[in-house]
């Protein structure tokens, strides 16, 4: 089984293949959204805490949150549901999805790092990918920079400064303001 591990704090992700079923036993019969300690997966994950965010089975059917079943089921899905995009207004369709309970017939299990462990994982926790684009909407620009409602953000084109979390360096980008 493959583990697609993401680290949202750095904006990175890495795909790791684990052949040993005993290491994967900690994930079995767990549901999406539950937290799992990474100590039993391997020594390189000692101290890490993962959250199960999804996965696909061997035929490519995605896991769907809220379906309490370890196998595949057929659901009538419409607008607003995950795993389906309607082509027409009001269209609904019966689609095959996997339940949210982890089983051995998954090919990929998506995990997110909640708490980093003792050692860095190369390519995952040691690198940092900053946000490529800043916000366009005026209210989101105010929230991003901590501005008040009286501050003017309506200049178009707007020069945005993206501050890195740990660095003092500033990146300047020209973007157009979308709406207030």
From TrEMBL:
GO biological process entries: translation
Gene Ontology cellular-component annotations: ribonucleoprotein complex; ribosome
Keywords: Ribonucleoprotein, Ribosomal protein
Family annotation (Pfam families): Ribosomal_S6e
Keyword presence, Glycoprotein: no
GO function terms (MF aspect): structural constituent of ribosome
Superkingdom assignment: Eukaryota
Family assignment from sequence similarity: Belongs to the eukaryotic ribosomal protein eS6 family.
Matches recorded under PANTHER family: 40S RIBOSOMAL PROTEIN S6
Name of the protein: 40S ribosomal protein S6
Origin species: Polychaeton citri CBS 116435
Phylogenetic placement of the source organism: Eukaryota, Fungi, Dikarya, Ascomycota, Pezizomycotina
């Amino acid at each position: 089984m493959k583990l697609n591990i993401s680290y949202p704090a750095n904006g990175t992700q890495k795909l790791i293949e684990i052949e040993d079923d005993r290491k994967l036993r900690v994930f079995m019969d767990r549901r999406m959204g539950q937290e799992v300690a990474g100590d039993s997966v391997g020594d390189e994950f000692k101290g890490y805490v993962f959250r199960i965010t999804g996965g696909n089975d061997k035929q490519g059917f995605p896991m769907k949150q809220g379906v309490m079943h370890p196998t595949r089921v057929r659901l009538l899905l419409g607008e607003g549901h995950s795993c389906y995009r309607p082509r027409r207004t009001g269209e609904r369709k019966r689609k095959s999805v996997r339940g949210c309970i982890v089983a051995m017939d998954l090919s990929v299990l998506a995990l997110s790092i909640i708490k980093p462990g003792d050692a860095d994982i190369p390519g995952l926790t040691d690198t940092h990918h900053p946000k490529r684009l800043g916000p366009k909407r005026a209210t989101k620009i105010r929230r991003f920079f901590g501005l008040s409602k009286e501050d003017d953000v309506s200049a178009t084109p707007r020069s945005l400064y993206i501050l890195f979390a740990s660095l003092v360096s500033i990146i300047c980008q020209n973007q157009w303001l979308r709406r207030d």
